[in-house]
Write a structure and sequence with these properties.
494 residues; mainly alpha; elongated
Length: 494
């Protein structure tokens, strides 16, 4: 503060002038001071003390025969004397002194109040003047302190507002542009006389705050530039990733389409091959007749029946249905023609067989001497001719081979439309290839071999049927094949 505070003048009370010393006089001996209340009271007890000591000595070490009436009375009299003239006497004196003292306190308090009342009003009047002045000075000092406190608080609040610019810039999300705006606003602030002695401190706060704000502005610019670059890189990465994902999806779609086309092509190729195989099986019925003109009419009839039951509709053969129908028609015509020829051949063989039986019976009635025979060594003993176009030297081995071939042929004719074997060519559906020549064995042994071969063949057929897919249309086919197997087992006694 530039002004000098004016304090009230303090006037000292006039100094008391000591009176002139009196002429020297002869000093008389000081009079004895009156005894104090304490000394007066205790003096009373001193007199009682002498009497009490004498009384105590009177009865000290006295033994009374309290067992007798006299002794008991003397003891009681002594006790009463000690009480009344000893203890009770002192205690009564104490009570009397206390009563006097209490009354003295009352009288003394009243007297004190009377005397104080003579001077107290004058003292209080002067004390009021003193306190009024002291209160005035204290109030003036408090007011000065309040004004100064408000002045300092106002300037400090202004300085705090200046420094608050930096705090505001440090808040999350503050941009470089907003910090620059704050710098521009704070930089134009000036500090005139109204700032009084706080102008220098305010200018220091302004300079420090602007320096810190400029540093924050630089950092914010760098951070925003890095964030913008990172965002641009992120957008670019997302664009590249989206393009790569789209390209990959396109490649995956193309690969899936190629795989689907390849699968469809494979399925179509397999379907066509299967249908071609089915058509080839139809032609196989006629191919089995080539090179074998001695098949029984019954086997050919079974092949005809099987071929007639073959479904050549479009549902089965699809675009090959017309080809399959034509093939079945041509093969059926060939099989019918072969069946008619086989029946005619078998009828001729049966007629010749009856003539052979009659010759055998005649020869049995007169058997020739074994040493005189002129028959060929390859002829069957006791058999004779074997039929038309069949040489007489056809032995039991040929009979057994023929029976086994016929059994396998019937089996093949039964399952030809249903079961194919990778090891069996299409032209061998009616039976195996002609068996090699067997050694000559008895007829019952050959028949047993044929029955065993038939049993094994039927077992193989049943196993194949059990392993095949028996759902849908295949269920009826499997049932038909198993029924045919059962009939062949019954026919062969297996």
């Amino acid at each position: 503060m530039s002004a000098i505070l004016d304090f009230p003048k303090i006037e000292a009370p006039p100094l008391a002038v000591a009176p002139a010393p009196a002429p020297a006089a002869v000093v008389a001996p000081a009079a004895a001071l009156p005894p104090t209340i304490k000394e007066t009271v205790l003096a009373q007890f001193k007199e009682a003390e002498t009497a009490v000591i004498a009384l105590a000595e009177k009865y000290r070490d006295v033994a009374y025969d309290v067992s007798t009436t006299r002794g008991m009375n003397e003891a009681k009299a002594a006790r009463l004397d000690l009480r009344e003239n000893g203890r009770f006497l002192v205690q009564r004196a104490e009570k009397a002194v206390k009563a006097d003292v209490n009354d003295l306190k009352r009288v003394m308090a009243e007297e004190v109040d009377r005397i104080v009342g003579l001077v107290l009003p004058v003292e209080e009047a002067i004390d009021a003047q003193i306190k009024a002045e002291e209160d005035r000075k204290a109030a003036a000092k408090a007011e000065r302190e309040r004004i100064e406190s408000e002045r300092v608080a106002t300037h400090q609040a202004g300085i705090a507002k200046i420094r608050a610019y930096l705090t505001r810039c440090q808040e999350p999300g503050m941009t470089a542009e907003r910090i620059l705006t704050g710098i521009q606003l704070l930089a134009v602030v000036t500090f005139g006389p109204e700032w009084q002695d706080f102008a220098e401190r305010a200018k220091t706060a302004q300079d420090e705050t602007l320096a810190a704000m400029r540093a924050l502005h630089t950092q914010a610019q760098e951070h925003e530039a890095a964030a913008a670059a990172a965002e641009a890189q992120r957008v670019e990465n997302e664009r590249i990733a989206a393009e790569l994902a789209a390209r990959q999806a396109e490649l995956d779609a193309q690969a899936a389409e190629l795989a689907e086309r390849e699968r469809a092509a494979n399925n179509e190729r397999d379907r066509i091959e299967c249908l071609k195989g089915d058509v080839a099986r139809i032609h196989g019925f006629a191919a089995t007749l080539e090179g074998d003109h001695n098949r029984p009419a019954s086997e050919i009839a079974e092949a005809i029946a099987t071929l007639e039951q073959l479904d050549v509709s479009e549902a089965t053969f699809q675009e090959f249905a017309t080809m399959a129908a034509d093939a079945r028609r041509l093969v059926l015509a060939a099989l019918l023609e072969a069946k008619d020829a086989a029946e005619a051949r078998e009828a001729s063989q049966n007629s010749e067989g009856q003539n052979s039986q009659q010759v055998l019976k005649a020869e049995a009635s007169s058997p020739p001497d074994a040493t005189d025979r002129e028959t060929s060594a390859d002829a069957s003993p006791g058999v004779g001719p074997m039929g038309a176009e069949q040489p007489a030297d056809a032995g039991l081995a040929e009979v057994a081979a023929t029976a086994r071939s016929n059994a396998l042929g019937r089996m093949g004719a039964s399952i030809a439309p249903e079961v194919e074997s990778d090891s069996t060519p299409a032209g061998d559906l009616f039976g195996a290839a002609p068996a090699p020549a067997l050694a000559t064995v008895p007829l019952d042994v050959a028949l047993a071999d044929c029955r065993e071969a038939l049993r094994e063949a039927l077992l193989i057929v049943q196993t194949l049927v059990n392993d095949m897919d028996q759902t849908g249309a295949n269920s009826k086919r499997a049932a038909d094949i198993l029924a045919r197997v059962s009939s062949l087992r019954a026919l062969g006694g297996i």
